Input
Amino acid sequence: MKNDKYLLFKNYSIDRGLMLDLNRVILGSGLGMVFFSTYNGAPFSGFVRSLGVGDFMYGVLMAFPVMGGLFQVLAAYVLERTGLRKKLFLISGVMQRIVIIPIVLIAYIMPQEYKPFTIGFIMLMLLISAIGGSFNGVTFFSWMASIVPINIRGRFFGQRQLFFTITSLLGGLALGFLLDLIGGSLGYIVVLIIAAIFGLLDVACFIRIGDPPMDIPDRNISLLKVWKEALGHRNFRKYLIFWSVWTFAVNLSAPFFNDYMLNFLNMKFLQITLLASTVYSIATVFSVRRWGNMIDKYGNKPVMQICGLGVVLLPFLWIFVTPATIGMIALINMLSGLFWCGVELTANNMMIGLSPEKNRSFYIGSFSMVTAIMGSIVAYFTGGILMESTHALFDRLNIMLLGYPIRNYHLLFVITSFLRGLAVICLLPAVEEENSSSSGKLVRDTMNSIKRKIMGSLT
Output
């Protein structure tokens, strides 16, 4: 077709109408990533620190954007009772994104003497955003499981991640430059409102996408009964335990990498974007399609094992990043972009693949709720408490490394590396995935392919 050159995802084995819908999904995800990379990145981190909060309250406030999973069982229950998947997705998506505007405005409008009220209002708005995010997440994955054919999921989600990586990169560069250029309170207001607008445009892309009718179960379905059924599914539970420990290990330190760059390394927002987000995005662009193809060929589990091992030691490398060696951030994020995209691709695919079609949204909701509590909320709070309680200790110790003092950040980096390794090496092997190959076969085939290419170039 003459307009096909404008499509982001092409696959002529599926209906053309479905192909257009899948392209709308990718476009929306690309616009949405400008919002999420800002909301979950250095700009929002800097905004929270600008409120003058300590390490513990910083950890608490940074936990709210990932707290949505706490409400996903409720979201799944509402979805299964009503079947209004598209309507719930659109309403909750707007709710999740639009509240960022009053948050950033109230923070700088309210006088300093009303700071406790301001913090309380921000927490309330973040809670509303988290609830919207929970409904948005459950409905999205249920929707995608219904419209994306299983035989092209690896390629589709790979193409989706490729596109939103590019838009996240471009948006991050532009907003990072704008934040440094304007500076101060006005900079945060402008950048976060622009991000919210991109988030709303993301939701708008889904208005025309078709939504197959859901198979609505018995309307007297017991929420507790189905939740117990989801947690009682042996293989699903193994994956749930692995992913909870993994996300705990990751999120224990997650909010403090941006904080480390801003307050220990004294970097500018544009520097952070260039050395972290830009390098990460470029590495992702070059690797995400390959991981997507490998998922379709070998399965999700072997790809997750290899990529998971690839990111285990990355936090440990941050110990050696000082104001004199900030160039190491580019190397760390190159490796992070190479491997993290594989983890992200396989995580969602395995969650969908290991949950049965019947009551799938309850499985997704249960998965998100448990991992949100253990892997996100508890992790963020624990990280904040650990940082708050060890701050004075490291000031007194005054231990030096490469001419710079070791701080409580560095302890956090070591702990998170150890816990990541525990999850990948001890817990992931127990998860069973039907029709997947071993990670050893994937490595052998890849090495043989590299050898053949080298030999071919020499002959």
